[in-house]
Amino acid sequence: MSSQPSVPVDVARLREVLDGRWAEVREAHRTELDDSFLPVYGETGDQARERITGLLPRLPVTMGMPAAFPAEYGGRSDIGASIVATEMLAQVDLSLMVKAGVQWGLFGGAVLSLGTRRHHDAYLRDIVAGDILGCFAMTETGHGSDVQQLRTTCTYDPATQTFDLHTPHQAARKDYIGNAARDGRMAVVFAQLITNGQRHGVHAWLVPIRDAAGNPMPGVTIGDAGPKAGLLGVDNGRLSFDHVTVPRDMLLDRYGQVAADGTYSSPIENDSRRFFTMLGTLVRGRASVGGAAAAATKVALTVAVRYGDIRRQFSSPDAEREVLLNDYLAHQRKLLPALATTYALHFAQAELVAAIDEVQGGDGPVDEHRQRELESRAAGLKAAQTWHATRTIQMCREACGGAGYLAENRLPGLKADTDVFTTFEGDNTVLLQLVAKGLLTGYRDEFGSLDGWGRASFVAEQVREMVLERTAARSLIERLVSAVPGRDEEVAVTDRGWQLKAFEDRERHLLDGAVRRLRNGASTKKDRPFDIFNDVQDHVLAVAAAHVDRVTLEAFVAGIEATSDPAVKALLSRVCDLYALSVIEAHKGWFLEHGRLTPARAKVITAVVNNLLKELRPQMGTLVDGFGIPPTWLHCAILREEADRQEAMAAHDAAGDPQTVAA
Amino acid sequence: MSSQPSVPVDVARLREVLDGRWAEVREAHRTELDDSFLPVYGETGDQARERITGLLPRLPVTMGMPAAFPAEYGGRSDIGASIVATEMLAQVDLSLMVKAGVQWGLFGGAVLSLGTRRHHDAYLRDIVAGDILGCFAMTETGHGSDVQQLRTTCTYDPATQTFDLHTPHQAARKDYIGNAARDGRMAVVFAQLITNGQRHGVHAWLVPIRDAAGNPMPGVTIGDAGPKAGLLGVDNGRLSFDHVTVPRDMLLDRYGQVAADGTYSSPIENDSRRFFTMLGTLVRGRASVGGAAAAATKVALTVAVRYGDIRRQFSSPDAEREVLLNDYLAHQRKLLPALATTYALHFAQAELVAAIDEVQGGDGPVDEHRQRELESRAAGLKAAQTWHATRTIQMCREACGGAGYLAENRLPGLKADTDVFTTFEGDNTVLLQLVAKGLLTGYRDEFGSLDGWGRASFVAEQVREMVLERTAARSLIERLVSAVPGRDEEVAVTDRGWQLKAFEDRERHLLDGAVRRLRNGASTKKDRPFDIFNDVQDHVLAVAAAHVDRVTLEAFVAGIEATSDPAVKALLSRVCDLYALSVIEAHKGWFLEHGRLTPARAKVITAVVNNLLKELRPQMGTLVDGFGIPPTWLHCAILREEADRQEAMAAHDAAGDPQTVAA
After folding, report:
1. What is the pLDDT of residues B371-428, one digit of tens each?
2. Which of A118, B19, B97, B233 has its CA 20 to 30 A from that of B609?
């Protein structure tokens, strides 16, 4: 029913391309994590927490998440390896990945990035070894997105040379804090620093929250966030501080120091700028969450594609057996564009991880422009990958029918566990706003601020003329784009240059429009500064989404260019066509509205997409096998059982049992 | 920040309009179902099953789901009341709703519809009273959508005057069966009837599966479907039959009888036609699932809207306190179109329920054309409502941030419990195909068949010229549509006639295109009958979706027309504008591609939608209050606590505590 591939693809070669630079880390996880690391279906919250805590010390160290720490503390200063390890854990058990992410990424990462030598020497070795479990206590019940406005205070008293950490009211309670409800011995607590009667913005302290016996420290109240949609193995909790005394040297003081007499000093003068510089060092958290969401999506797609290749339903007049789900156009329309998008995002994520590793991994000072561009990219890709995960895992569960609703078939856990990724480590909508703000201001001034409103008129005046900054394979993409003739209609829709130009046109036009509308607003709505931004918020978010789409396509194109195996390259090129044309098809309203597509060409795109589905149909299995997920990791009953059932039924039908064959 | 409504709306009047004809049933539930019926967060599967089973006998009877049964068995022959009662239970606890739906809708409904007097007299009273709990054992592991191909057999033996019920292989195992794993004493089992060596298609038998002590009957193997994504309180199980003897009179023989000597007779000669007539009597199952999904969506929207009206984040230069979530355009863009769609679907559902009540509730013979049209409408609205629920509840959970991920805030349960609705009682994609087939063939011949493939060429030849059948307020809608001048550009996009015409144009054009493509395919692909349909499957599904959109808009328009209160009518009219224009905006690619919209007018629509959001912003609370959900039923911690927290924070900030105010 479908055309055959012209060149057979060696799955091992495809996997090599996808495994990329940290292939060794991926292989270490595939080899070391056996069945005992897989989720247990139907366990209670207490059972899940117990099990996950027990697994933590058994995880790979130098080839795992702790790889990011310096060798002297047990790692090997490999930031990229640490993010890739997070992706791998996400395919095994998402509770385990989050628990490990809290311990080594957030908690340990904060001590490493915000602390100084004395904190490192005193704690990092135990943190890496998992002997001190800890929390990252930033979010409060009252402030999740706008963390610059945290209400917890930490006030220095020169007389005692200690800080007084305090939760002034219930909205200032630390909330959703991983590792808090059960296991955490210490916490990095974020609070407003006050000394000598002056506030200096949000800083972080390393604070013991439980004693050796596991009881809360004096003045610390610990609550449980209770049952959640998923991530049962993670002990999210709530922390309140009733005038808790914190020694002066527990301030993580890389970016701000308090002298014994209470004098404050910092290499960064502006409070807000300092805070977002502190947050910036934590950029790999967002890259890890985005990568983990993508990794879980690959598991879901592997389950749905593999099931669709054995599950049959409804007979066809031209086949003896019933039709495989994957042979239906509607099923291909669900699975294949999602698979193509997953491939595209994979290359974008790989590029992001390499860039973080390069920018943050060196010994010298970090290039500020690159750092901000990186924060923006991590934010945008985190939003794109987590929403893609939520949509795609949902679709995969539906594509498996009632079986997809049973825990034993893995999909319910993947859906429930990843669900929170769209709003943690930054709410996706807020993150896209941050991306747009970076584009609008050229990453100038307080870019990191999540607050798009406070100084709207300022930003409106600052918006720059659009300059597209390419992230990947700059010269190749320039060449492809500039080779497209002026009259689009003459170019095939599968021309890569035309596709790149279409993505770029959309981003550029949307950005220009946002600039124009913000400037108009700044002059006509001077008395309503909130409305200047709010009236264009939908437009601004569209800019960010278009930007992420472009960055993703460019990364995919660069990834294909770097592929040497011709068969793999040819396959990836068709997948890239499907990705690019699916995005254009999904936004054809915009392209038609702005004269970028004629109606006739829009119809051609739909026809070409359908042809691509036919062409890629026989490659669906290869495409998911390329993800390299060990079969046991799929942990899915229907994949183990359905083929046998179909065989049993076919054999029984063929045997002509009078009870089952029509008279 | 937003304009005020011109006429104040009395919420009680709005609720009256929404409560509609079965307001009394709604009120009975609101009054009778106290806190003890609400979900318990964090319980185990066993605890949930125990609790739900215990609640079943406490539910309203004559004002509840059993109302559909005749008075002599404990009901009052009120089919509409029964569906509305299902909607109400869905707002209390979805496990309870599904458990009750299995007992009274599926199991009891099958005995009533497929059985005859002797079955009714023997069992219905106990079924209505909940003294016999039962299952609806249709789906098999191997056949869920294509239930005409079930593999379980039931073979008559004239010598013993009994049937032999048998599961020939593991693909024929009954699966996902509610009430099977724990509570069911009997089951309506669907199987292939064989008598005198001949097959007569699928029939149903009433079969005891457990004895009085709760042990499986001889030859019956009962398994547990295990943990699921949600619906923890429903004991879904698996049934296998090893040559189980079933007495002759346990055949539910309304549509097919087996005489003592094994002679088969039926008022409907064709096996397939008979089977789909049998299924047709169960149409209210789909209407109930669609209505339940919509009801749960209303709970989620009430939570998210009410939270967005108290939750603040990010400061604004022109306000003392931080900004309410609902004041952000991006938040309005998420919540308000979903709210408008929920309103539109509410009126479509109300119209469907009234139509089912009218067509099936009478004593005379059922009008076949109307019955088929009804099945199609129930299928289409079930798909639309359940997908809307999945998308909207997901969006609401994200709109509540991290709080939306905690079980105590209700949304995780709503999401997980409704998730399966998109694939049970008919997979949505398969149902839309059924809708399209009805439109293509004018509801002729085997319309009920879910199999779009087997006789594709036949169907392709049968496709009729398009005749739009209006379901609601026929003359009003004709008048509105015909009043639209030929040149669309001269009419405001808020003109109701223009909106109706746009929906109708889309459906008509898509249907014409599908007819043309099927006819072309039938002549050019004679040797590939599967491809005739498969190559246009995406197009055919688009026809169905456009049809459901049109039916929904027409029902909304009819509902507004029937509203007497002027303020309520004015508000509903604006909500209807938002619904209609959101749908057109979402499909603007199609409208532009087909010359139904100019680019300029497409941009006007986006601007008008944004204006409608501003206009409706102050009414968001009123709109959710109109759903009439008792506050305790919301069962949501953030709604109880967040307002107090915001007050505490505001008071603290205002008090100028030196620890919390910037120096």
Report:
1. 888 999 999 999 999 999 999 999 999 999 999 999 999 999 999 999 999 999 999 9
2. B19
Are residues B179 and B291 both part of a single domain? no
> Are B649 and A455 an interchain contact pair (Cβ–Cβ within 8 Å)?
no
pLDDT in tens, A624-652: 999 999 999 999 999 999 999 999 999 99
Q: Quick one: tokens of B431?
A: 């149902």
Whether residues B210 and B337 share a domain: the answer is no
Task: Please state the domain count of chain A.
Answer: 2
Residue A109 belongs to a domain: no
Query: What b/e string do you get for B323-353 counting C-beta neighbours within 10 Å, with b at 16 or more?
Result: bbbbbbbbbbbbbbbbbbbbbbbbbbbbbbb
Cα(A36)–Cα(A33) distance, integer angstroms: 8
What CATH number is associated with residue B335? 1.20.140.10
CB within 8 Å: A197 and B328: no
Assess whether A32 carries a catalytic annotation: no
Q: Distance between CA atoms of A398 and A405, rounded to whole angstroms? A: 8
Please say if the pLDDT value at position A360 is more than 50: yes
A521 or A594, which is more confident? A594
B274 shares a domain with B175: yes
Please give the Cα distance from A498 to B393 (Å, whole number): 38
B541 and B414 within one domain: yes
CATH assignment of the domain containing B216: 2.40.110.10
pLDDT the model gives residue A282: 73
3-class secondary structure for B258-269?
A: ECCCCCEECCCC
Owning domain of residue B260? 134-278
> Is residue B318 included in any domain, yes or no?
yes
Task: Look at residue B126 and tell me if it is in a domain.
Answer: no
Residues of chain A in contact with residue B94, where contact means CB-CB under 8 angstroms, are: none
Question: Whose CA is closest to B426, among B434, B436, B438, B417?
Answer: B434
What residues of chain A lie within 8 A of the CB of B451, using their CB? 314-315
Single residue among B236, B254, B278 that ends a domain in this structure = B278
pLDDT, position B218: 98
The gap from C-alpha A157 to its chain's centroid, in whole angstroms, comes to 41
Nearest to A142 among B45, B226, B649 (CB): B649
The answer to whether the Cβ–Cβ distance between B169 and A645 falls below 8 Å is yes
> Are residues B222 and B352 part of one domain?
no
Same domain as B300, residue B429:
yes
Confidence of residue A318 (pLDDT cuts 50, 70, 90): confident
Which residue is catalytic, options B87, B351, B373, B425?
Answer: B425
The per-residue pLDDT for range B211-251, each reduced to its tens digit, is 999 999 999 999 999 999 999 999 999 999 999 999 999 99
In a domain, A249, yes or no: yes
Q: What is the mean pLDDT of residues B80-108?
A: 98
Give the start-end residues of each E strand in A196-332.
198-208, 220-224, 237-241, 244-247, 257-258, 264-265
Of A242, A271, A300, the residue at which a domain comes to its end is: A271
Q: Are residues B380 and B421 in the same domain?
A: yes
From B165, which residue of chain A is nearest by alpha-carbon distance?
A659
Q: What is the CA radius of gyration of chain A?
A: 26
Task: Assign B526 a pLDDT band (cuts: 50, 70, 90).
Answer: confident
Chain B residues touching residue A595 (CB < 8 angstroms):
599
- DSSP label of B320: S
Complex prediction ipTM: 0.96
Residues B554-561: what's their mean pLDDT?
97
Which residues in chain B are closer than 8 Å to A390, comparing Cβ atoms? 394
Work out the minimum CA distance from A447 to partner chain B, whole angstroms: 16
How many C-beta atoms surround the C-beta of residue A591 within 10 A? 21
Give the gap in angstroms from C-alpha A449 to the nearest C-alpha of chain B.
11
Contact A199 B333 (CB under 8 A): no
Q: State whether B507 and B359 are in the same domain.
A: yes
